[in-house]
């Protein structure tokens, strides 16, 4: 509603010039349609309202997933649960929204796991570089025993963790020059998530990393406080980072999950039938988000190129230079994360690779 009004206002008042500038600068990607809701109506007592906050914007795959979640929950509760969506960190960044859940002032959020590592140290396993060579391998771990165990562990401290979603493979962007090898990172100021392992990665590669919440990132890039950042293609596009970053490198260096969290204070008031409905809807949202972000990647890269961004795609040999340089990070973090967990995941990945 707001978007449409703004667009019309700009084209009437500002004329073709403003309209065209806006069009060429922001590469708008069309989303696949929302699936139909399946499953019976769930009957239980009471009426409930869920405020659901996320850090990424309305044009990302994460928000699209939330729209599907909203549709499932509202339809299957026959309107007894109403879901209101708040994108773009309007109600706080990942950490602030998570605290609001604990305080009971917000019902749901879906942060990246990385800024929550101080609360749940094992999440750091997902920050290890080049852990999952294929997205399906991340799915197998998240949807399997390890993922379930982590959801159970994160269902504490005033939170209930009900599902995984996809943030995705992270790509590097910067405002200075093309990056093809670790040496090109020398001196580049890179924003990382608020996460020690990410800082370690960029220091090890020779860059100059600074942790910062996602909510502050666009302004920091625009004002040159940092030269670069790293996020999945869909986030680079939906946050319009291409307007302030001329260069991108397809590094795929880390696969980041989103975790769907509910306030325990709210959860405890919900009838069991509705708790189950939320779990089902969270699983469906996660699957759909993966589908959306994966099917859009090629198109987004093309849109970003068309908008003037220079994208470097690395050869396997070039990727290996980054991987080799980052191998010490695995040793540095082994004790902190737990060697057994790392070995388990690496074994699962190798098994999956062998089966291909
Ligand atoms: O959950 O902070 C980040 O860069 C994350 O990838 C995400 O966009 C917010």
TrEMBL record:
Residues 1-27 form the signal peptide. GO terms for biological process: transmembrane transport. InterPro entries: DctP_fam, TRAP_DctP, TRAP_DctP_sf. GO terms for cellular component: outer membrane-bounded periplasmic space. It comes from the Bacteria. Keywords: Receptor, Signal, Transport. The keyword Signal applies. Belongs to the bacterial solute-binding protein 7 family. This is Tripartite ATP-independent transporter DctP family solute receptor. It comes from Chromohalobacter marismortui.
């Amino acid at each position: 509603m707001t978007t449409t009004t703004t667009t019309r206002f700009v084209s009437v008042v500002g004329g073709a010039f403003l309209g065209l500038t806006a069009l060429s600068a922001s590469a708008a990607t069309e989303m696949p349609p929302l699936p139909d809701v399946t499953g019976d109506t769930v009957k239980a007592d009471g009426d409930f309202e869920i405020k659901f906050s996320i850090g990424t914007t309305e044009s990302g795959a994460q928000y699209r997933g939330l729209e599907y979640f909203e549709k499932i929950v509202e339809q299957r509760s026959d309107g007894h649960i109403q879901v209101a969506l708040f994108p773009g960190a309007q109600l706080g960044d990942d950490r602030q929204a998570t605290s609001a859940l604990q305080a009971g002032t917000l019902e749901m959020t879906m942060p990246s796991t990385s800024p929550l590592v101080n609360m749940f140290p094992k999440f750091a396993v997902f920050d290890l570089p080049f852990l999952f060579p294929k997205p399906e391998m991340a799915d197998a771990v998240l949807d399997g025993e390890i993922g379930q165990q982590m959801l159970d562990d994160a269902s504490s401290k005033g939170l209930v963790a009900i599902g995984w979603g996809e943030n995705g493979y992270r790509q590097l962007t910067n405002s200075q020059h093309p990056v093809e090898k670790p040496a090109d990172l020398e001196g580049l100021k890179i924003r990382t998530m608020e996460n020690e392992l990410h800082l370690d990665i960029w220091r090890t590669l020779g860059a100059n990393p600074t942790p910062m919440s996602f909510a502050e990132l666009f302004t920091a890039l625009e004002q040159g406080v940092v030269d670069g950042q790293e996020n999945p293609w869909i986030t680079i596009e939906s946050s319009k980072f291409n307007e302030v970053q001329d260069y991108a490198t397809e590094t795929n260096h880390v696969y980041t999950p989103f975790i769907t969290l509910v306030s325990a204070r709210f959860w405890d008031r919900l009838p069991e039938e509705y708790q189950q409905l939320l779990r089902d809807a969270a699983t469906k949202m996660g699957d759909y988000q993966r589908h959306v972000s994966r099917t859009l990647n090629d198109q987004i890269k093309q849109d970003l190129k068309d908008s003037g961004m220079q994208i470097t795609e690395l050869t396997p040999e070039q990727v290996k230079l980054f991987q080799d340089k980052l191998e010490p990070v695995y040793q540095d973090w082994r004790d902190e994360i737990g060697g057994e967990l790392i070995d388990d995941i690496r074994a699962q990945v190798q098994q999956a690779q062998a089966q291909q």
